[in-house]
Amino acid sequence: MQLEFTDSLRKNYEFRRVYSRGKSAAAPCLVVYARRNGSCGNRLGLTVSTKLGCAVVRNRVRRRLREIYRLNEPRLRRGYDIVVVARHRAAQAEYSRLEREMLRSLTELGLLPGEEQA
Known about the structure:
Ribosomal Protein S5, domain 2; alpha/beta; 5-stranded mixed β-sheet
């Protein structure tokens, strides 16, 4: 799966920079952090703790979050580092709930243009 406008966050200091200096939007299943990165593309980082369950469960949550991002990537504003942190409820959540919460969080952060909440 290749993301067209997005690279990955890989280094620990990149994640820490987004946590400390970025804005966040929380939902019951996940938390989304975003920070401008000064480039013309986005960088995505996914955090799924071992507390969520075994590797099978963690990888399923990671795949779902990445797919939700991939399908909505063309609509997102560019030039941001985005970190999605899965909460404990994400392990049992249905795909539609994860999608709804992630899109709401991205809208709250102003990353989905033209869809800001009233």
